[in-house]
Amino acid sequence: MTVRAAWLQSEGQTREDTRLTLAALLTPSGQSTEETPLRSRPGILPGGFVLTGSAPMQCTIGTGRAIVQGKDTNQGAYLVAAVSPETLTIEDGNAQYDRIDLIELVVLDDTYDKTGVTEARIRLVKGTPAAVPAAPVSPDGSSLPLYTVTVKKGTSAGTGGIVWTGTGSNVTTQHWPVVALGGILPASGFRGAYTGQYRDAGGTLQRWDGATWVSYPKALGGIAPSGTTTGGYTGQYRDSSTGLQRWDGAAWQYSEGTAKILLAATQWASSQQQSVPSNAWTAINLPTVEVDDAAGWNGTNTYTVPRTGWWRIAAHITWQNDAQTGMRGARIVVGGVGQSRMTWLTPAGNGAISVGGQGLIRITAGSTVQLHGYQSHTAAVKTLGGSGYACVLTAEWIKS
Protein backbone atom coordinates (compact mmCIF):
# COMPACT_ATOMS: atom_id res chain seq x y z
CA MET A 1 0.00 0.00 0.00
CA THR A 2 1.21 3.54 -0.74
CA VAL A 3 -1.00 5.14 1.92
CA ARG A 4 -0.57 3.96 5.50
CA ALA A 5 -3.03 4.53 8.37
CA ALA A 6 -2.76 3.86 12.09
CA TRP A 7 -5.54 2.11 13.98
CA LEU A 8 -7.72 1.83 10.83
CA GLN A 9 -7.76 -1.86 9.97
CA SER A 10 -9.10 -4.34 12.48
CA GLU A 11 -5.96 -6.37 11.96
CA GLY A 12 -2.73 -6.33 10.00
CA GLN A 13 -1.29 -2.99 11.15
CA THR A 14 2.52 -3.31 10.94
CA ARG A 15 5.22 -1.75 13.10
CA GLU A 16 6.28 0.20 10.01
CA ASP A 17 2.74 1.54 9.63
CA THR A 18 2.82 2.73 13.24
CA ARG A 19 6.23 4.40 13.00
CA LEU A 20 5.42 6.24 9.77
CA THR A 21 2.06 7.53 10.91
CA LEU A 22 3.12 8.55 14.43
CA ALA A 23 5.91 10.54 12.80
CA ALA A 24 3.21 13.06 11.87
CA LEU A 25 3.73 14.37 15.42
CA LEU A 26 7.49 14.82 14.94
CA THR A 27 9.49 17.61 13.33
CA PRO A 28 10.21 16.75 9.69
CA SER A 29 13.78 16.83 8.47
CA GLY A 30 15.74 16.30 5.33
CA GLN A 31 18.34 17.73 3.01
CA SER A 32 16.01 17.76 0.02
CA THR A 33 12.35 18.59 -0.55
CA GLU A 34 11.79 15.03 -1.76
CA GLU A 35 12.88 13.29 1.46
CA THR A 36 11.64 15.85 4.02
CA PRO A 37 7.92 14.86 4.10
CA LEU A 38 8.59 11.33 5.38
CA ARG A 39 11.77 11.75 7.41
CA SER A 40 11.82 12.98 11.03
CA ARG A 41 14.46 15.05 12.76
CA PRO A 42 16.54 12.69 14.92
CA GLY A 43 17.89 13.83 18.27
CA ILE A 44 17.33 13.70 22.00
CA LEU A 45 14.69 15.45 24.04
CA PRO A 46 16.52 18.26 25.88
CA GLY A 47 18.13 17.17 29.14
CA GLY A 48 18.54 13.47 28.45
CA PHE A 49 21.49 11.09 27.99
CA VAL A 50 23.90 13.08 30.19
CA LEU A 51 27.43 11.62 30.39
CA THR A 52 29.02 11.40 33.84
CA GLY A 53 32.46 10.02 34.65
CA SER A 54 31.99 7.22 37.18
CA ALA A 55 35.60 5.87 37.29
CA PRO A 56 38.92 6.70 35.62
CA MET A 57 38.03 4.53 32.61
CA GLN A 58 34.26 4.29 33.06
CA CYS A 59 31.35 6.60 32.34
CA THR A 60 27.61 6.49 32.87
CA ILE A 61 25.04 7.64 30.31
CA GLY A 62 21.89 8.83 32.04
CA THR A 63 18.27 8.23 31.18
CA GLY A 64 16.51 10.04 28.38
CA ARG A 65 14.23 9.91 25.39
CA ALA A 66 15.21 10.19 21.75
CA ILE A 67 14.08 9.87 18.15
CA VAL A 68 16.19 7.77 15.79
CA GLN A 69 15.32 8.07 12.11
CA GLY A 70 15.77 4.87 10.18
CA LYS A 71 18.42 4.77 7.47
CA ASP A 72 15.73 3.84 4.99
CA THR A 73 13.15 6.63 4.79
CA ASN A 74 10.29 4.14 4.73
CA GLN A 75 11.49 2.62 8.00
CA GLY A 76 10.05 5.63 9.76
CA ALA A 77 11.33 7.02 13.04
CA TYR A 78 11.97 4.96 16.18
CA LEU A 79 10.87 6.48 19.48
CA VAL A 80 13.40 5.35 22.10
CA ALA A 81 13.58 5.69 25.90
CA ALA A 82 16.47 4.73 28.17
CA VAL A 83 14.82 4.04 31.54
CA SER A 84 17.98 3.34 33.57
CA PRO A 85 21.58 4.59 33.41
CA GLU A 86 24.07 2.66 31.27
CA THR A 87 27.70 2.17 32.34
CA LEU A 88 30.41 1.88 29.67
CA THR A 89 34.06 0.88 30.13
CA ILE A 90 36.70 2.48 27.91
CA GLU A 91 39.68 0.31 26.94
CA ASP A 92 43.15 1.55 27.89
CA GLY A 93 44.95 3.80 25.44
CA ASN A 94 47.35 2.58 22.77
CA ALA A 95 51.05 2.76 23.64
CA GLN A 96 51.93 4.83 20.55
CA TYR A 97 48.88 6.68 19.21
CA ASP A 98 45.71 8.39 20.37
CA ARG A 99 42.30 7.07 19.31
CA ILE A 100 38.73 8.32 19.33
CA ASP A 101 35.87 6.16 20.61
CA LEU A 102 32.22 6.75 19.75
CA ILE A 103 29.26 6.45 22.11
CA GLU A 104 25.98 6.21 20.21
CA LEU A 105 22.33 5.31 20.52
CA VAL A 106 21.51 2.66 17.94
CA VAL A 107 18.41 0.84 16.76
CA LEU A 108 19.08 -2.58 15.21
CA ASP A 109 16.16 -3.85 13.14
CA ASP A 110 16.86 -7.17 11.42
CA THR A 111 14.08 -6.58 8.90
CA TYR A 112 16.19 -3.80 7.34
CA ASP A 113 19.83 -4.19 8.43
CA LYS A 114 20.04 -8.03 8.46
CA THR A 115 22.07 -8.02 11.69
CA GLY A 116 20.07 -10.86 13.22
CA VAL A 117 19.21 -8.54 16.12
CA THR A 118 16.15 -6.40 16.79
CA GLU A 119 16.71 -4.05 19.73
CA ALA A 120 17.74 -0.54 20.81
CA ARG A 121 20.91 0.00 22.84
CA ILE A 122 23.61 2.47 23.88
CA ARG A 123 26.74 1.27 22.13
CA LEU A 124 30.46 1.99 22.54
CA VAL A 125 32.38 1.77 19.24
CA LYS A 126 36.15 1.59 19.67
CA GLY A 127 38.20 3.76 17.32
CA THR A 128 41.49 2.96 15.57
CA PRO A 129 44.73 4.38 17.05
CA ALA A 130 46.46 6.67 14.56
CA ALA A 131 48.81 9.62 14.29
CA VAL A 132 45.74 11.66 13.30
CA PRO A 133 42.83 9.71 14.81
CA ALA A 134 39.26 9.93 13.53
CA ALA A 135 35.98 8.89 15.08
CA PRO A 136 34.83 5.45 13.91
CA VAL A 137 31.87 4.98 11.60
CA SER A 138 28.79 3.39 13.11
CA PRO A 139 29.05 -0.27 12.02
CA ASP A 140 25.39 -1.09 11.45
CA GLY A 141 21.81 -0.18 12.27
CA SER A 142 20.20 3.26 12.50
CA SER A 143 22.22 5.34 14.93
CA LEU A 144 22.36 8.69 16.68
CA PRO A 145 25.81 9.83 17.95
CA LEU A 146 25.91 10.89 21.59
CA TYR A 147 29.58 11.57 22.44
CA THR A 148 33.10 10.99 21.23
CA VAL A 149 35.88 10.25 23.74
CA THR A 150 39.52 10.93 22.87
CA VAL A 151 41.68 8.25 24.47
CA LYS A 152 45.22 9.61 24.69
CA LYS A 153 48.12 7.24 24.20
CA GLY A 154 49.08 5.46 27.41
CA THR A 155 45.82 6.38 29.17
CA SER A 156 44.75 3.96 31.87
CA ALA A 157 43.32 3.96 35.37
CA GLY A 158 46.92 4.00 36.65
CA THR A 159 47.73 7.24 34.80
CA GLY A 160 44.58 9.04 35.94
CA GLY A 161 42.23 7.85 33.23
CA ILE A 162 39.94 9.91 31.00
CA VAL A 163 39.38 13.60 31.72
CA TRP A 164 35.60 13.53 31.76
CA THR A 165 34.76 17.19 32.47
CA GLY A 166 36.29 20.64 32.84
CA THR A 167 39.41 22.09 31.28
CA GLY A 168 41.10 19.67 28.92
CA SER A 169 38.12 17.33 28.82
CA ASN A 170 38.49 14.36 26.48
CA VAL A 171 34.73 14.26 25.81
CA THR A 172 32.95 16.01 22.91
CA THR A 173 29.17 16.19 22.74
CA GLN A 174 27.82 15.02 19.36
CA HIS A 175 24.06 14.87 19.91
CA TRP A 176 21.52 17.61 19.21
CA PRO A 177 18.04 18.40 20.56
CA VAL A 178 14.68 17.55 19.05
CA VAL A 179 11.13 18.68 19.81
CA ALA A 180 7.65 17.74 18.60
CA LEU A 181 6.17 19.28 15.45
CA GLY A 182 5.69 23.03 15.94
CA GLY A 183 8.06 23.18 18.89
CA ILE A 184 10.89 25.74 19.01
CA LEU A 185 14.21 23.95 18.66
CA PRO A 186 16.98 25.19 20.98
CA ALA A 187 19.64 24.67 18.30
CA SER A 188 21.18 26.13 15.14
CA GLY A 189 23.22 24.93 12.18
CA PHE A 190 20.48 23.09 10.28
CA ARG A 191 18.18 23.76 7.32
CA GLY A 192 14.56 24.56 8.01
CA ALA A 193 12.04 21.88 7.08
CA TYR A 194 8.97 24.05 6.42
CA THR A 195 7.99 27.71 6.11
CA GLY A 196 7.00 28.99 9.55
CA GLN A 197 9.31 26.73 11.56
CA TYR A 198 10.94 28.42 14.55
CA ARG A 199 14.21 27.90 16.38
CA ASP A 200 16.13 29.48 19.26
CA ALA A 201 19.62 30.18 17.89
CA GLY A 202 21.82 31.26 20.77
CA GLY A 203 19.10 33.34 22.40
CA THR A 204 17.69 34.81 19.17
CA LEU A 205 14.29 33.66 17.89
CA GLN A 206 14.42 32.82 14.18
CA ARG A 207 11.80 31.82 11.60
CA TRP A 208 12.38 29.76 8.45
CA ASP A 209 10.91 31.70 5.50
CA GLY A 210 11.33 28.86 3.01
CA ALA A 211 14.87 29.77 2.04
CA THR A 212 16.71 31.10 5.09
CA TRP A 213 16.41 31.71 8.83
CA VAL A 214 15.15 35.23 9.65
CA SER A 215 15.88 36.64 13.11
CA TYR A 216 13.19 38.36 15.12
CA PRO A 217 14.12 41.56 17.03
CA LYS A 218 14.95 41.08 20.69
CA ALA A 219 13.13 42.97 23.42
CA LEU A 220 10.56 44.47 21.00
CA GLY A 221 9.46 47.85 22.31
CA GLY A 222 11.89 47.78 25.21
CA ILE A 223 14.72 50.22 25.86
CA ALA A 224 17.99 48.38 25.32
CA PRO A 225 20.86 48.77 27.82
CA SER A 226 23.82 51.01 27.00
CA GLY A 227 26.04 48.10 25.98
CA THR A 228 23.81 47.15 23.00
CA THR A 229 26.07 47.78 19.99
CA THR A 230 23.53 47.08 17.22
CA GLY A 231 19.81 47.79 17.31
CA GLY A 232 17.37 44.97 16.65
CA TYR A 233 14.99 47.10 14.56
CA THR A 234 14.54 50.67 13.31
CA GLY A 235 12.93 52.71 16.06
CA GLN A 236 14.42 50.80 18.99
CA TYR A 237 15.71 52.93 21.85
CA ARG A 238 18.68 52.40 24.12
CA ASP A 239 19.96 54.07 27.23
CA SER A 240 23.39 55.70 27.14
CA SER A 241 25.58 57.65 29.53
CA THR A 242 24.67 60.88 27.71
CA GLY A 243 20.98 60.38 26.97
CA LEU A 244 18.35 58.34 25.16
CA GLN A 245 19.29 57.11 21.67
CA ARG A 246 17.24 55.74 18.75
CA TRP A 247 18.39 53.10 16.22
CA ASP A 248 17.84 54.48 12.67
CA GLY A 249 18.60 51.17 10.95
CA ALA A 250 22.34 51.79 10.66
CA ALA A 251 23.51 53.71 13.74
CA TRP A 252 22.39 55.01 17.12
CA GLN A 253 21.19 58.62 16.97
CA TYR A 254 20.26 60.79 19.92
CA SER A 255 16.49 61.24 20.20
CA GLU A 256 15.04 64.53 19.00
CA GLY A 257 14.26 67.16 21.59
CA THR A 258 16.95 66.03 23.99
CA ALA A 259 18.87 69.31 23.88
CA LYS A 260 21.22 69.92 26.78
CA ILE A 261 24.37 71.89 27.40
CA LEU A 262 27.25 69.52 27.09
CA LEU A 263 30.22 71.84 27.59
CA ALA A 264 31.18 75.07 29.31
CA ALA A 265 34.90 75.83 29.72
CA THR A 266 36.41 79.13 30.83
CA GLN A 267 39.57 81.11 31.57
CA TRP A 268 38.58 83.31 34.45
CA ALA A 269 41.43 83.65 36.96
CA SER A 270 44.27 86.14 36.64
CA SER A 271 46.73 83.23 36.92
CA GLN A 272 45.21 81.74 33.75
CA GLN A 273 45.79 84.77 31.49
CA GLN A 274 47.36 83.91 28.13
CA SER A 275 49.78 85.89 25.99
CA VAL A 276 48.71 85.90 22.32
CA PRO A 277 51.25 86.79 19.59
CA SER A 278 50.36 89.35 16.93
CA ASN A 279 48.81 88.51 13.57
CA ALA A 280 48.23 84.78 14.27
CA TRP A 281 45.06 82.95 15.19
CA THR A 282 45.97 81.17 18.44
CA ALA A 283 44.09 78.48 20.40
CA ILE A 284 42.88 79.87 23.71
CA ASN A 285 43.41 77.73 26.79
CA LEU A 286 40.31 77.31 28.99
CA PRO A 287 41.49 75.32 32.01
CA THR A 288 38.34 75.62 34.15
CA VAL A 289 35.58 73.21 33.12
CA GLU A 290 32.15 74.07 34.46
CA VAL A 291 30.24 71.23 32.74
CA ASP A 292 31.32 68.47 30.36
CA ASP A 293 28.59 65.83 30.14
CA ALA A 294 30.35 63.66 27.56
CA ALA A 295 33.93 64.06 28.87
CA GLY A 296 34.98 65.53 25.53
CA TRP A 297 37.23 68.35 26.79
CA ASN A 298 40.97 67.61 26.71
CA GLY A 299 41.72 69.87 29.70
CA THR A 300 43.32 72.73 27.75
CA ASN A 301 41.85 74.01 24.48
CA THR A 302 40.08 71.24 22.50
CA TYR A 303 36.58 69.74 22.65
CA THR A 304 35.85 66.47 20.81
CA VAL A 305 32.21 66.42 19.71
CA PRO A 306 30.35 63.30 20.99
CA ARG A 307 27.20 63.62 18.85
CA THR A 308 26.52 64.27 15.19
CA GLY A 309 23.97 67.02 14.70
CA TRP A 310 23.25 70.72 15.01
CA TRP A 311 25.15 72.55 17.72
CA ARG A 312 24.84 76.01 19.23
CA ILE A 313 28.39 77.26 19.83
CA ALA A 314 28.94 80.43 21.85
CA ALA A 315 32.24 82.05 22.83
CA HIS A 316 33.96 85.29 23.70
CA ILE A 317 37.47 86.47 24.54
CA THR A 318 38.22 89.39 26.83
CA TRP A 319 41.44 91.26 25.98
CA GLN A 320 43.53 93.29 28.38
CA ASN A 321 44.31 96.95 27.71
CA ASP A 322 47.95 96.16 26.90
CA ALA A 323 47.71 98.44 23.86
CA GLN A 324 45.07 100.54 22.12
CA THR A 325 46.01 99.85 18.50
CA GLY A 326 45.08 97.07 16.08
CA MET A 327 42.17 94.65 16.02
CA ARG A 328 40.98 92.10 18.56
CA GLY A 329 39.17 88.93 17.45
CA ALA A 330 37.63 85.60 18.37
CA ARG A 331 36.88 82.63 16.10
CA ILE A 332 35.41 79.14 16.36
CA VAL A 333 37.61 76.50 14.68
CA VAL A 334 36.05 73.12 13.78
CA GLY A 335 38.33 70.27 12.72
CA GLY A 336 41.19 72.74 12.27
CA VAL A 337 39.16 75.02 9.96
CA GLY A 338 38.16 78.51 11.03
CA GLN A 339 34.44 79.22 10.62
CA SER A 340 33.80 82.52 8.84
CA ARG A 341 30.24 82.77 10.18
CA MET A 342 31.59 82.48 13.72
CA THR A 343 34.46 84.95 13.42
CA TRP A 344 34.21 88.23 15.31
CA LEU A 345 36.55 91.29 15.11
CA THR A 346 36.54 94.71 16.80
CA PRO A 347 39.06 97.57 17.13
CA ALA A 348 41.07 97.93 20.33
CA GLY A 349 39.90 100.65 22.71
CA ASN A 350 40.72 102.47 25.90
CA GLY A 351 40.04 99.55 28.27
CA ALA A 352 39.23 95.86 28.25
CA ILE A 353 37.65 94.56 25.01
CA SER A 354 35.30 91.54 24.85
CA VAL A 355 34.83 89.95 21.42
CA GLY A 356 32.55 87.02 20.56
CA GLY A 357 29.08 85.75 19.72
CA GLN A 358 27.20 82.56 18.90
CA GLY A 359 25.95 80.52 15.95
CA LEU A 360 24.41 77.24 14.81
CA ILE A 361 26.57 74.71 12.96
CA ARG A 362 26.26 71.05 12.01
CA ILE A 363 29.18 69.02 13.35
CA THR A 364 30.04 65.33 12.97
CA ALA A 365 30.83 63.21 16.02
CA GLY A 366 34.60 62.99 16.52
CA SER A 367 35.31 66.46 15.15
CA THR A 368 37.20 68.94 17.32
CA VAL A 369 36.09 72.42 18.38
CA GLN A 370 38.45 75.19 19.59
CA LEU A 371 38.25 78.87 20.46
CA HIS A 372 40.99 80.91 18.73
CA GLY A 373 42.02 84.47 19.46
CA TYR A 374 43.59 87.12 17.19
CA GLN A 375 45.18 90.53 17.73
CA SER A 376 47.08 92.78 15.28
CA HIS A 377 49.07 95.00 17.67
CA THR A 378 52.81 95.02 17.01
CA ALA A 379 53.55 93.00 20.17
CA ALA A 380 51.87 90.25 22.17
CA VAL A 381 48.64 91.08 24.03
CA LYS A 382 47.27 89.11 27.00
CA THR A 383 43.76 87.83 27.58
CA LEU A 384 42.03 89.10 30.68
CA GLY A 385 40.88 86.83 33.47
CA GLY A 386 39.79 87.86 36.94
CA SER A 387 38.38 91.19 38.17
CA GLY A 388 35.00 90.16 36.77
CA TYR A 389 36.24 89.21 33.27
CA ALA A 390 36.76 85.86 31.53
CA CYS A 391 37.14 83.99 28.23
CA VAL A 392 34.42 81.36 27.63
CA LEU A 393 33.48 78.58 25.19
CA THR A 394 30.13 76.76 25.42
CA ALA A 395 28.66 74.05 23.21
CA GLU A 396 25.03 72.88 23.21
CA TRP A 397 23.65 70.02 21.14
CA ILE A 398 20.24 70.85 19.61
CA LYS A 399 19.19 67.94 17.36
CA SER A 400 20.51 65.30 14.99
Helix content: under 10%
Whole-number average pLDDT?
91
State the domain count: 3
Calculate the terminal CA-CA distance, rounded to whole Å.
70 Å
Sheet-strand content, in percent, reads: 35-45%
The outline comes out as elongated
Rg, please? 38 Å
* Strand order in the sheet with the most strands: 21-18-29-23-26
Oligomer: single chain
Question: What would you call the structural class?
Answer: mainly beta
Q: Give the low-confidence spans.
A: none
Which sheet architecture does the biggest sheet show?
5 strands, antiparallel
Give an overview of the whole structure.
The chain has about 400 residues and is an all-beta fold. It has 3 domains: about 15-175; about 180-215, no CATH class; about 260-400, Jelly Rolls (Sandwich). About 5% of the residues lie in helices and about 40% in strands. The protein has a 5-stranded antiparallel β-sheet with strand order 21-18-29-23-26, with no helix packed on it. Strand 16 (about 245) and strand 17 (about 250-255) form a beta hairpin. The longest helix is centred in the N-terminal third of the chain and has 8 residues, at about 15-20. The protein is elongated, with a radius of gyration of 38 Å. The protein starts with 14 loop residues before the first helix and ends with a strand. About 30% of the residues are buried. The mean pLDDT is about 90.
